[in-house]
């Protein structure tokens, strides 16, 4: 196999800052990342953003059955083709964007497992550009919740890199200052493990931050059994004012008229202390909030479509609209 260094030189590849690309060239580290995915012998693997192919080589060395490479940056395709020629019949290269790429049909049907069974022999692995990592994991968590996308095959496992602080948010426990929307959204749907830290200087070019490798295994039963959109709305609202008491953020779920009464009703029914800060709430408290909010939405369907920011925007527009209509009246006179 050509080394990654050879490929970079041959095709004069440079990491693009605007795409937040950072290459990992140390084979010991790429092997270590791939080991976190578990046993890959005869597995089907999708690697996201392989770039010059550092992790790709380590995946191929693990004896996989099939490797699908999804790369957005066309400059890397010729180098990946060289790697694929060294492993005939094993590698498929897709020039595309993982955020829009449909993964429902990329693996053979016979690999499908029931959700309650062991995870299928399918793995997603990737050293993600920082700009993509958070929107992508939110998208995949929604797929986990709906059992579609790469999770149509069962509880597909993921091994991905994130900025260290994002990884800390993904794995933070109640009370930790990194506890955030990401902590709840990921931990209610998956077992999330922060495997190890890679120092920034191991990458080319060196990013300002260290990088963490995180492993996800979808749970058989989510901790909160409500639709993804509802959980996300409640969690986003709670963390909207993360330094204030949690009732402040929860209030943004309700229109201004009747806000206080409904916020009190939600918190009393869910049995949540209104003077806790958002990062102090446990998963079961979030579950109670979501379940109670769901009941309130079932009783008043207009509630779920209510948007706090839109109401604020319209409030700010009111004086302007008033003065405009006054001017129009005066003009008509």
TrEMBL record:
Pfam families for this protein: RrnaAD
PROSITE patterns: SAM_RNA_A_N6_MT
Residues annotated to bind S-adenosyl-L-methionine: 22, 24, 49, 71, 97, 127
Entries under SMART domains matching the protein: rADc
Family: Belongs to the class I-like SAM-binding methyltransferase superfamily. rRNA adenine N(6)-methyltransferase family. KsgA subfamily.
This protein's UniProt keywords: DNA-binding, Methyltransferase, Mitochondrion, RNA-binding, rRNA processing, S-adenosyl-L-methionine, Transcription, Transcription regulation, Transferase, Transit peptide
InterPro entries: KsgA/Erm, rRNA_Ade_diMease-like_C, rRNA_Ade_methylase_Trfase_N, rRNA_adenine_dimethylase, SAM-dependent_MTases_sf
Enzyme Commission number(s) of this protein: 2.1.1.-
Ribosomal RNA adenine methylase transferase N-terminal domain mapped to chain residues: 29-220
Organism (species): Circaetus pectoralis
Entries under SUPFAM superfamilies matching the protein: S-adenosyl-L-methionine-dependent methyltransferases
GO molecular function annotation: DNA binding; mitochondrial transcription factor activity; RNA binding; rRNA (adenine-N6,N6-)-dimethyltransferase activity; S-adenosyl-L-methionine binding
GO BP terms, alphabetized: transcription initiation at mitochondrial promoter
Localisation per UniProt entry: Mitochondrion
Lineage: Eukaryota, Metazoa, Chordata, Craniata, Vertebrata
Entry annotated with the keyword Transferase: yes
Name this protein carries in UniProt: rRNA adenine N(6)-methyltransferase
EC class: transferase
One Gene Ontology cellular component: mitochondrial matrix
């Amino acid at each position: 196999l050509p080394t990654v260094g050879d490929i970079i030189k041959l095709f004069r590849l440079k990491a693009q800052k605007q795409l937040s690309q950072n290459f990992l060239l140390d084979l010991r580290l790429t092997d270590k990342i791939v080991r976190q995915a578990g046993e890959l012998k005869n597995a089907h693997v999708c690697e996201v953003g392989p770039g010059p192919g550092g992790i790709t080589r380590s995946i191929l060395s693990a004896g996989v059955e099939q490797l699908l490479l999804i790369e957005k940056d066309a400059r890397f395709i010729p180098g990946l083709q060289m790697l694929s020629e060294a492993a005939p019949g094993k590698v498929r290269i897709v020039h595309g964007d993982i955020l829009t790429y449909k993964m429902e049909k990329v693996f053979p049907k016979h690999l499908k497992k029931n959700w309650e069974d062991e995870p299928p022999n399918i793995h997603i692995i990737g050293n993600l550009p920082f700009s993509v990592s958070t929107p992508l994991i939110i998208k995949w968590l929604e797929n986990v919740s709906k059992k579609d996308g790469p999770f149509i095959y069962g509880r597909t496992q993921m091994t991905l890199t994130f900025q260290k602080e994002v990884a800390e948010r993904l794995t933070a426990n109640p009370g930790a200052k990194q506890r955030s929307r990401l902590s709840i959204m990921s931990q209610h749907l998956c077992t999330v493990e922060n495997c190890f830290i890679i120092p920034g200087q191991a990458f080319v070019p060196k990013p300002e931050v260290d990088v963490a490798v995180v492993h996800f295994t979808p749970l058989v039963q989510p901790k909160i059994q409500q639709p993804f959109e509802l959980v996300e709305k409640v969690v986003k609202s709670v963390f909207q004012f993360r330094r204030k008491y949690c009732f402040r953020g929860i209030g943004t779920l309700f229109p201004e008229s009747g806000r206080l009464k409904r916020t009190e009703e939600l918190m009393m029914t869910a049995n949540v202390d209104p003077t806790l800060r958002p990062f102090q709430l446990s998963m079961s408290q979030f579950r109670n909030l979501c379940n109670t909010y769901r009941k309130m939405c079932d009783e008043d369907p207009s509630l779920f479509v209510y948007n706090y920011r839109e109401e604020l925007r319209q409030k700010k527009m009111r004086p302007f609209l008033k003065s405009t209509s006054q001017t129009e009246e005066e003009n008509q006179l």
